[in-house]
């Protein structure tokens, strides 16, 4: 991998998401060599992927080049590669571009879509965990509308205009809201010949409430907002299968739909090699102690979505979202430095800053530790927090500009099929 | 194609580039039915493709959704399709989504890369005529640098860092300049471990001057600027072949390079079906009369790059660029309306507004009919003209913001490999 051997201990970080980035920042300018490995050359701001999928934002403005972030940092190395195996005995990671020894390893690989073993759903449903996947959804939505225009068969047209989102967490709720706004403001103008009433947006949630983990007020209000926007919310309904044509459920309702977006679960993106005893099988997260060390492996930390730190307050580990990832990344960096200096490590205490979700224009729900509110003000808070959290001035500025434009003009201009997903051609994308 | 038959004559326009868009605008709100067919659902602002390829701009900000442009226009239809054949006897076009009869046909398919029959070059060299192609170049440049970091073989590293641009027209010159600025400002920061002196940018031109068609002052100054930026300019050198490894020429110089960008020629994107006598074989443009009617076919117009109107001042037809396309599009629309009203048609007279090219920061050349100038002021003029010509307020604003940012910070932040081109993976792109 062409990384020099120095007298400094080497820390290898796998993954440049929220957790990995926070850890890398915490290790800057120390007597250490830091190697960050990611399969993309950019950091993805996942909370805004749904806006890329629905034509509201350009993909490049929610991605930030990882190399740039560490341009001026000494002893820092970035490698574009996928880690295929970890050999804890040899203290070595194996990657698509060679092997690399480590003194400390930080696993920050995040999470991936959990299809719960349903290969049909995996084959036919869309997922939205990366920029290319979001662009695929964007292409598919628009391609389906183009196709709906052409068919004279009403049932086929209904199928093409039927959208099923499985999972009522923040991803599902935000995506359903954004699609509903496309239905309201964009698609009737672009497709005046289509009866827009045929477009259905179904949000299916297996339990009795949306936004599980947020307050019941937030959950109710989010549902309220969605229904006002014309989304059909199905609660206590479980999707059993999707064969590319029909979504079957455990209830009486079946859905004939061309587009199914699976936002019903995530699992840790665990890597081969560590002993099975380190893994919590469902959902494939590494068991870590209070210092984020993988149990039984003193030199390996796991942080963020891929780590499961079980405690009294969080018997199933912390929520798989940005805040625990960032906080664990920061602390893991500090603890590595402490350990090298022979100091005592500090256990992780999650500072829950709350949660929020946006449903549409002027419609958001915010749960702060001491204050829960919904509506216009919540929406501004949501915007401010997300804008502020984006990395890089340029990204912030371009996103702000797009939001202002979209807000004032009731528009979304990035409704472009750059790489067709469905009707593959020379510009297509190889595989889902 | 699900387009209603009305009492109005139907005008079918193939292609939503500069020419097709100008024609469509000229036919708005008339007693006509207009059908615009394009294989993309967006208009591409081709003059800025090179900035997408070199990480300076986001692809979405130089593309504009075609449907949006005609949202409020009565009797206007857009169809996303590729035209496969024209049947002039039946007055019908055949497309990937069905057949469509026309009363008037406007062919505005533009141009495509001309490899002059060299299948090797076609297979291994990159082209830059569309947004996805530009994104491929962007991915390839960055992937080559990532790979150069890894190899310990000096010759391989040199090859990966060697860039050959064939063709010294505006595309080649602008791309070479942009690459040279990446070499100066971006790549040494992102790849501090690579010896940036190994990076070579070769611009090969078969004739004795760059920017053929512009003034000799512009040509000389452009060469001057390029050399100052560190580009190796090779004049009077003809590329004979490229086998994916070595570029061979008719001179003594050969180039071992991983990246070859072919900007040495374009040809009309002619469609099958019209009699061969309508085509000028090299470079596959339709012969048109002074009204842009394809010779011998009274109901078919060809405009823009795909049309060749031979005259005393332009024995080989007009230059294949935006201005003649826009002017011909406007006039073709007027002439169709005149013909329908039984009025006399007006012949096309090209109003040559001049030409310009940018080489880099503060470095551009501008030839106006009465004034030719180069340098900082030319660069501001170039920026202003291009910004003003972009379609849509949002695109203008985002491009302006990016340019300001890049100018002030000496930076380009969209150096992202969203879909890898070379080391294909699950996010890749199917074919070149």
UniProtKB/TrEMBL annotation, chains A, B:
It catalyses: a quinone + NADH + H(+) = a quinol + NAD(+). Keywords: FAD, Flavoprotein, Membrane, NAD, Oxidoreductase, Transit peptide, Transmembrane, Transmembrane helix. SUPFAM superfamilies: FAD/NAD(P)-binding domain. It comes from the Bacteria. GO terms for molecular function: oxidoreductase activity. The chain crosses the membrane at residues 376-393. This is NADH:ubiquinone reductase (non-electrogenic). It comes from Tenacibaculum geojense.
